Each structure stands twice: as C-alpha cells, then as structure tokens.
Amino acid sequence: MLTLVCLSISLFGCAARSEVKNLPKAQAQAQLELHHRYECVSSGSKGEFKSALTIVQRNWNYSLVWDNGYVGMGIRVENKLAVTFLERSPDGGFIFPPGVSLYSIEDEKLVGYWASGDGDVYKDTCTHADSVPAPQSPQQKPEPANPGTRI
C-alpha cells in the first residue's frame, strides 16, 4: 500500500511539473518573475510586526528568507504563491511545527494569510522594497531644491 501511495505521489508530482514546463513561453516567463526584496507587515498572536523578506527563484521553486529568523520554500501557480516555512532555532536547527502561507500576487504586493499551528490564521502584506520609500541614512544629505540654492 505504501508503495502505491508513493508511486501515486511521484506520478502526480511529475504530471504537475510537466504541466508547468509546457506553459506557453510568455506565461511561463511571467510566472518566473517573482524574486525580490519585500517589506512585510504581519499580524500575529502578539500583535503586528514588521520584517524584510527576500525571495529567490530556484528553477520552478521559490526560496524565502525573512530577517526575523524564518526560512521557507514556495511554489507559484498563476497569481498565487503557496509557502511552507520554519523558524530557525538559536542552535542552527529548526523549530516545529512548520507554518504555511498563501499569498495573492497583486502588482507590487504579496497579500495573504499565514498559520503556524496555534489554531489561528493571520494576515500578511509584503510590499516590493522598491515601492517602499527608503529611509534616509544620517550620512545622506537632502538634495537641494535648485542646484544653486543652499539649504
């Protein structure tokens, strides 16, 4: 029975991969352009929190790394990104249970929901970092209004 289940999973996995690889070229290209830095605002059991997210394409998968210690792997189908993620522990391992996220891809944003086993579902919005105004560092001086005007 276990062999049959594994064989079924393998066959479905191959069929799904084959479907994606056989997409029309323009659609396949559009599917692949989701690797950027994002600024996220998320809700959780302790309230709202912010994090930075980096998404890197790896063939037909997406690797996700948050700056707050989470890592994940996702797949994209049309305008949806499905992700499973784990929190890194201080000793370099991972903390279980894993979490899941489902995002809608909307222009410069990923808008979705996540859960990690506590029985609740939380909201998550990640905005493409190029769409978020960069904070001005102390070393940067404001640009003058006119080239000849001193501030």
Q: How would you spell out the order of helices and strands?
A: HHEEEEEEEE
Uncertain segments of ≥5 residues (pLDDT<50)? 1-18, 136-151
The CATH topology label of the domain at 32-130 is Lipocalin
Structural class: alpha+beta
Q: Give the strand content.
A: over 45%
The CATH architecture assignment of the domain at 32-130 turns out to be Beta Barrel
Task: Provide structural commentary.
- With 151 residues, the chain is of the alpha+beta class.
- The chain has helices spanning 2-21, 25-32; strands at 37-44, 47-58, 61-66, 70-77, 80-88, 94-106, 109-115, 122-128.
- It has a domain at 32-130: Lipocalin (Beta Barrel).
- It has 2 helices and 8 strands.
- It has an 8-stranded antiparallel beta barrel.
- Mean pLDDT is 75; it is low at 1-18 and 136-151.
Provide a concise account of the structure shown.
This protein is α+β, with helices and mostly antiparallel strands and 151 residues long. It has a domain at 32-130: Beta Barrel (Lipocalin), CATH 2.40.128. The protein is built from two helices and eight strands; from the N terminus they run ααββββββββ.
List the helices and strands and how they pair.
Layout: H1 2-21, H2 25-32, E1 37-44, E2 47-58, E3 61-66, E4 70-77, E5 80-88, E6 94-106, E7 109-115, E8 122-128
Antiparallel strand pairs: 1-2, 1-8, 2-3, 3-4, 4-5, 5-6, 6-7, 7-8
